[in-house]
Amino acid sequence: MLQKSKKEEIIKDLEVAVKGSKSLVFVNFHGLKVSDETILRRELRSNGVGYKVSRKTLLGRALKGKAEGEVPKLDGEVAIAFSKDDIASPREVYNFQKAHKGIVLNILGGIFEGKFVGKEMMMELAMIPTREVLLSKLAFLLQSPMQRLAIAVGEVGKKK
To answer: Residue 24 in contact with residue 82, Cβ under 8 Å?
Structure first.
């Protein structure tokens, strides 16, 4: 059993994490091996995402008044992934889950733009590509009509 001072310290750490992040994801990690969790923490940290495991009661206390709406139902063992980027935390958890097929991680919901959101919204955010990928797609879309025009002009030039 945790002492009251230790509980207060954990709550303060969680409050700092929640306050300093733009997005936060609740993750159920039931059945995750310690070695897999170490890999998860390392990969998240390298991408600028923090990860904390906590008891649900302490997490509930830390989340009181931090966002609008109602906290989604948190089943099983719960951790939070948080970042200063709007969509980095859901995207990185999702990418880890996708890259490591045998590992069971479930996104339960989260906080986005100051509101509690459900699993569906977090999954939508997680599937948004990175900024670099979106910029490359935009560049390709802009290049395509110009390329077709150049080919058409070249064909007209060959006929004359």
So the answer is: yes
Residues 78/28, Cβ–Cβ less than 8 Å: yes
pLDDT tens-digit readout, 14-24:
888 888 888 89
Q: Say which residues have a Cβ less than 8 Å from residue 59's Cβ, sequence separation at least 6.
A: 14, 74, 78, 80
d(CA 139, CA 52): 38
DSSP 22: S
Q: How many angstroms separate the CA atoms of 12 and 26, rounded?
A: 18
> What is the spatial distance between Cα 152 and Cα 109, in angstroms, rounded to a whole number?
51
Dist CA 71 CA 140 (whole Å): 41
Cα gap 111→159, rounded to integer Å: 62
pLDDT digits (tens, 9 = 90+) for 54-95: 888 888 888 888 788 888 788 888 999 999 888 888 999 998
Domain 4-128, second-level architecture:
2-Layer Sandwich (3.30)
Determine the Cα angle at 120 with ends 117 and 124, to 5°. Answer: 100
DSSP state at residue 85:
S
Domain residue ranges in the chain? 4-128, 129-160
